[in-house]
Design brief:
Rossmann fold; alpha+beta; 5-stranded antiparallel sheet
Length: about 325
Amino acid sequence: MARIRFAGLAKRFDAQVVLAPLELEIAEGEFFTFVGPSGCGKSTLLNLIAGVEAPSSGALYFDEARVDALAPGARDVAMVFQSYALYPHLSVRENIAFPLRVRGTARAEIAREVERVAQVLGLSPLLDRKPRQLSGGQRQRVALGRALVRKPRVFLMDEPLSNLDARLRLEMREELKRLHEAHGITTVYVTHDQEEAMALSQRVAVLNAGRIEQCGTPQAVYADPANLFVAQFLGSPPLNLLEGESPEVVLGVRPADVLVHASPREGATAARVTLLEPTGSDLWVTADWRGSRIKGRAAPGAAPERGATAWLEMPPGRIYAFDRATGTRQRTPA
């Protein structure tokens, strides 16, 4: 395991800034996620850690050793990609064993390590199959096994679950969390999926155009966003935006914090229901309120009908205020 430190680490392609100078430390054994939209620099950052790309400036450290000039093979990192990148002509056993064979590990030790990792990942019955005979989730487990068998200092994961269907993503999310708790290898994960980032990570950094907008625990970043970008990016359904009392201010409130009632409530305000979205455990209600579209949550079976009047209850302490021009969070509502 290694502690990772970015000291002014930056990347440019000609005049284009892909990553602004980055000052950050990832603790030894931490599961750390960079989350942000496509093109924000997430994958480039992983490539810099892996040594696939060289920084334009700054330095990268593993513990106290500077590594940004080292070749990828000298850094002792293992990568898991969005594509499984398995060798189709090799069996599961041979795919998992491949990194150890390249290292020249003794045959008996390879056999022991492959059996150990296969047992951890539930792949023991599949060791003699080829990748084409596996499901997507099984192939991703093989890719994880090939990385895990190396016992690297650092795991790098580039959107490894995005090719899986919804059920498999949930299963693999649990698998990744369990593996990290069991082995404690420093893990740097990148994804555009904010729900995935919050479920997996000990800390997250929200990236936007190559810059970190905010860094902290998932719950802290969600509950106390530093600016409008972070507030809008984290959270599903997305943040409701409302007009402030002055034109310089825009207000935001999360749909989960807006309670929708079918009958009048003290402190609630009336709105016209335009859409109902039942999702099983929740019933999301979209309503027209003072010319703004606002989404809230009602108890299943207790919501007004479409076109009817609903009463929206918005706790004042859960309404955020942002500067319209800069997006900066204002700590006292306007």
